[in-house]
Amino acid sequence: MTKFSRFTLLSLAIALLLVPSFGFAQTSSTLGAINGTVTDTSGGVLPGVTVTLSSPQLQGTRTTTTDAKGDYVFPLLPSGTYRVEFSLSGLKPVLQTGINVNVGQTTKQDAKLSLGAVSETVTVTASTVVVDPTQTTTQQNFKEDHLKYATMGQAGRSYQNVLGQAPGAAGGSNPQVMGSNLGQNQWRMDGLNTTDPVTHTFSTNLVFDAIQEISLQTAGYEAEYGKGTGGIVNVITKSGGNNFSGSFDARLSNQHMQQQGKKHQEAPDPTALATDRRLQVYKNWSPQATVGGPIQRDKLWFFVSGNRIHNHNQPPNTRGFQPGDRQFIGYNTFGKLTGTFTPNQTFGLKYTYNPALIPFASQSSTVRPEADRDQYQSTRIWNGSWDAILSSQWLSNVQLGALRSYLRSSPHSGDLLTTGTIDRSSGISSVNYTNFQAGNRDRDELIASTSYFLNAAGTHQFKIGTDLDRTTFTSVNFATGTPLDPNMCSPTYAGGSTGNPNAPVNTFIPAGSICGAINRPINGANSLYDVSTILPEAEFKASARTFFAQDEWRPMDKLTLKAGLRYDAQTFKRDTGETAVTLSKYQPRIGFAYDIANNANSIVHGHWGRFMDDNALTLSSYLASNGSILARYSWSASRGRFLLSQVFGGPAGNLLDPTLKPTYADEANIGFTQRLTASSSLDVTGIWKKSHDIFEDSCAFDNCNTDGTFWMTNNPDGQSNVLRQEYQGIITRYELRPTWGNILATYTWAKSRGSVEYTQNAGADFDVDPVNFVNRFGWLSDDARHRVKIDGYVKAPFGTVIGANWYWDSGVPFNVTRNSLISGTEFLEPRGTRRLPHFKQLDMQLQKNFTFSGTTFGLIGTVFNVFNKETVTARRGSVGNEPATIANPSPTAFFNTASAWQRPRRYEVGFRVEF
To answer: Which of 68, 281, 662, 700 is the 20 to 30 Å CA partner of 268?
Structure first.
C-alpha cells in the first residue's frame, strides 16, 4: 500500500471517529454563521426561545431554540442578508432584519424580549457591518452590492482585479499579498482548489455577475487553510432562488474613447507621444448574462451564466515599431444546481468552462509582431459538495472536484523552423517566436471535515479535516528554429570551443537529435547562439495530503482562543514514475480575540502561525529524467565563427539537493477592531512575516565550470540565508456600509524586502556565484512605503449610483542590472534602490437606473484616470553588457528611460438589465 493510500485511510478513519455527537463549529470555507444571546429587558437570559431564520439565499427556513444560557447558533449559512424572528410565550416577538452573513465569519446578533401583547412584533434593523468577535484572521469580504457598483468598468469586473482593492494586496491579476510573491496565493472557487497546478497562479475566469461574494484572507488564517504564504482567495458563486431572476450586462470601450496623450517618450524618439491613440488598436467588448430560479421551491434551484469576451489591447510604440494587436477572444460559462431534499442538508453541483484564444499574447513593446506568440487555453471544473447539520450535535462537509486545464503557446507565424532573435542589449525580440509549449494541467481533489462542540472549562469547537489531491502535468516544451550549422546539433562540433578553438569539441548531444535554436546578439551583432534538443512529451505527477485539527475555545464569553495544527505533505514524481521528493511540514497556529464589552463592538485580536507554500508541478518537470541539452555558442570576431562555450542539462536532467526542504513563512499579527456606528468599523493591524527555506535552481558543482549541472536547493553555492523574503506592515481599514452605499478606505504602511521574486523556482537568480549573488537582497517589486485605497459607491437621488476607486502609492522600486555574456542578469546596485514616482489614479462610474414592471434598466458611464495623469510606471534598468563607469554611466542609450506610462483618461459605456 502506498503512503498516499495509507494517509487517505487514516484521514477518513479519524474523521469517522470524531462523528459522535458533540455539537458543531459554525463556519466553513464557503459559509458563514449567526449566533447570539437572547435576554429580557433586565438582562436575564431566556432559555427556550424559538428562533426562526429565513433568507432569499436559504432554501426553506431554519429553526432552533436557545439553550440554558440563552444562546443560539445557526451554522453553515450561505452568504447573504437574513431575517431572524425570536418568540417566547408571554413576550413580544422580535423580528431582526438586514442581518449580513459573510463567508468564513460569524455574525453576532443578540436580542431582547419584553412583556406585552404577543400579537405586537418589535422590528429591529441589524447593524450593516459585520464585526466578528471571534475572528483572528485578517480578511476582506466583497459583497454582491460592492461588486456591482464599486468595480469600475469591464476591466474591474473580474474577481482577480477586485482583489486589488483589499489592503495588503499589490500588483495585478495575480496579486502580491503582504510580501509574498504572485505565485504564493491559493485560489478557491466555492471552496475547491482552482490554483494552476503548474504556475501556482489563478487558473480560471468566471462570469462576474455569477459571483455572490469574494473573500480574501491575507494573514492569520486558521489551520483549515493553507497551501500558500500569501492570500487565500475564495470566490463564492450564486445559487438561484425561489424567484426567477437574472441580468444582462454589456460594456464597450475603444481607442476613440481615450484621450490623446500629452507626455512624450524619453527614448528612443523623444518627439513621439508616450501614448498615441492614433497608433493603437484598443477595443473591449464583453456582454454577459445570468438567469436563476427554482426547479422546485425550497428544494432545488438552478443558476446558469455566460460571457462572451473580445478584447484588443495593443502595446504602444516605444521602440520604433508597432507591436501586434493582443486580443482575448473567449467564453466564460458557469452552471450550478443547489438542492435541499432533506432539512439541513445541502447538495451542490457546479460546472465551469472557459475556452479562449489570445493572438499576439506577449503584449510587449519589445516584441515585434513577427516574433510574437498565440495562446490557446481552456479550463473545465466539476465540483460536487455536501454540507450537512445531521443533528444539533453534528456537522459535516464533503467536496469532490476535478480541474482540467489545457494551454498551448506557439509562434504567431505558425513557423516552427525559422530561428528567432532576442537582442541581449535592447531586449527586442524579432524574426520569429522562440518557443513552443503545450500541456494539460489537471487536479482531482477530495475535501472532508467534521466538527463538534464540547463543554469543558468553557466551550470548545473542535474541527478536523483532510484535503487530498492528485495533480498531473503533460508537457511539450522546446525552442523553435533551426541551428545555423547542423554540426551544432551533433555529438561533435567541428568549429571548436572557447577553450580550444582549433579542435573539434564534444557537445554531449546524442546522435540523431533534433534541435531548436535562439540567436542572442548584442545591438544586432553576433554574440551568443543557443542550440537545444527537442524532447518528446513527458508526464509529471504529484500528490498532496493534508490533515488539520483546530479548536476554538471560549473560556469566558469575552475571550476566544484558537489553536490549530496543520500537516501538509506533497510528493513529486519524476516522468519515470519514481518518487523524486516528498516535502512536508507541521504548521502550528494560535490566535486570540478579546471582546472587551462582550457586545461585538471593541475587539483585540492576534495570531501567530506557520504556513507552508506548496510548490507547483514545475518542480517535477525540472527533475525530468530526460532533460534537454543546451549548447551555448559564443561569437569569436577574430575567427569569424561561433565557438562552443558551455553545455547545460543532459540526459540525466537536473538534480535535487537531497537536503531540500519546503518553503514556509512564520507570521504574527496583532490588531484592534472598533465598531464606530451600526454601519461603520475601524481596524488597525500590525503584521510581521518572514519566509524560510526558499529554494531556487543553482549550479550544483564547481560553478558549472565543468559539466553545467544544476540542482534545486535551499542553499545556492552552499550559502545559507541568501534566499530571503520578509515583510512588516501596519494596515488601517475603515468600512462604512450605510443604507445609501458602501465605502472601503485603507491605508497601508509596509516594508517588503527579499532576494528573489517569482521565478517558479527556476530562474536565472543565484545560478552562478558570485555573478548572480551580488546585490540581490533589497526592496521587492511590491514595496511601497505608503498605499491609500478608497473604493465604494453612493446611491444618489433619481435612481443614480455613483461609484469611485481612488489609489495612491509612494512609488515602487526598480532594479539596475546588466546582462552578462555567460551568467545572465547581474545586479549592479542593491535590489530596488531606485524608485518610480508617486502614483495616483481616480476612476469613477455613474449608473442611471429606470425601473418598469419589476425590471431595472441601467445606463452606465465610466471614466478611468479622471485627472488625466501620465505618470511613468516602469523604467529600463538594464545598462547593457558592460559595467557602468564614471566616464560612461549609461552604456546604452535607453538606460533609466521610461518604458511604460499610466494610460491617459479614457471612457467606457455600458448597459445593464436586471429582473
So the answer is: 281
In order of 110, 472, 616, 697, 750, the CA distances from 541 in angstroms are: 51, 4, 10, 20, 38
Identify the band that residue 748 occupies on the pLDDT scale cut at 50, 70 and 90: very high
Do 259 and 289 touch, CB atoms closer than 8 A? no
Report yes or no: 725 and 179 within 8 Å, Cβ to Cβ. yes
- Give the homologous superfamily in CATH for domain 138-237: TonB-dependent receptor, plug domain (2.170.130.10)
Q: How far is 258 from 218, CA to CA, in rounded Å?
A: 35
Question: Which CATH architecture fits 245-481+537-625+657-723+731-914?
Answer: Beta Barrel (2.40)
Grid cell for residue 750: 509596509
Please name which of 711, 819, 821, 836 lies closest in space to residue 784, comparing C-alpha atoms: 836
DSSP secondary-structure letter at 164? G
469-496 pLDDT, tens digit per residue, is 999 999 999 999 999 999 999 999 999 9
Degrees to nearest 5, angle at CA 515 with 509 and 519: 110
Amino acid at 204: T
With beta carbons less than 8 A apart as the criterion, state whether 265 and 246 touch: no
**How is residue 716 annotated by DSSP?**
G
pLDDT attached to residue 881: 53
Number of H helices, E strands in the chain: 5, 57
Residue 639 makes CB contacts below 8 A (sequence gap 6+) with 501
Other beta carbons less than 10 A from residue 125's beta carbon: 12
- CA–CA–CA angle 521, 527, 528 (5° rounding): 90
Location of C-alpha cell 569569424? 640
127, 678 Cβ separation under 8 angstroms = yes
Report the 10 Å Cβ neighbour count for 534.
Answer: 17
Kindly report the number of other CB atoms within 10 A of residue 336's CB atom.
22
Q: What is the C-alpha separation between 905 and 844, in angstroms, rounded?
A: 11
Residue 345 near residue 299 (C-beta atoms within 8 A) = no
**Residue in the block written with cell 435541499:** 340
Give the pLDDT confidence of 627-672 residue by residue, as tens digits: 889 999 999 999 999 999 998 877 777 899 999 999 999 999 999 9
User: Per-residue pLDDT tens for 681-724?
Assistant: 999 999 999 999 999 999 988 888 777 788 999 999 999 999 99
Asked whether the predicted pLDDT for residue 460 surpasses 90, the reply is: no
Q: What are the phi and psi torsion angles at 449 (to 5°)? A: -150, 155
Residue 22 confidence (pLDDT): 33
Cα gap 891→424, rounded to integer Å: 13
Contact criterion met (CB below 8 Å) for 100 and 126: yes
**Single-letter amino acid code for the residue at 534:** I
C-alpha cell at 294: 427554482
Domain 31-125 has CATH 2.60.40.1120: yes
Longest dimension (CA), the chain: 108
Nearest to 902 by CA among 857, 843, 858, 840: 840
Query: How does residue 26 score in pLDDT terms, banded at 50, 70 and 90?
Result: low
Exposed/middle/buried for 142, CB within 10 Å: 0-12, 13-18, 19+?
A: buried
DSSP, residue by residue, 287-305: -EEEEEEEEETTTEEEEEE
Q: pLDDT tier at 122 (50, 70, 90 boundaries)?
A: confident
**How many whole angstroms separate alpha carbon 735 and alpha carbon 383?**
33
Tell me which H or E stretch contains 159.
helix 159-162
- Domain 138-237 identical in fold to domain 245-481+537-625+657-723+731-914: no
Average pLDDT taken over every residue of the chain: 91
Q: How do the residues of the chain divide into helix, strand and coil, expressed in percent and rounded to 5?
A: 5, 55, 40
Q: Which residues pair with 913 in a beta bridge?
A: 248, 857
> What is the SS3 assignment for 535-580?
CCCEEEEEEEEEEEEEEEEEEECCEEEEEEEEEEEEEEECCCCCEE
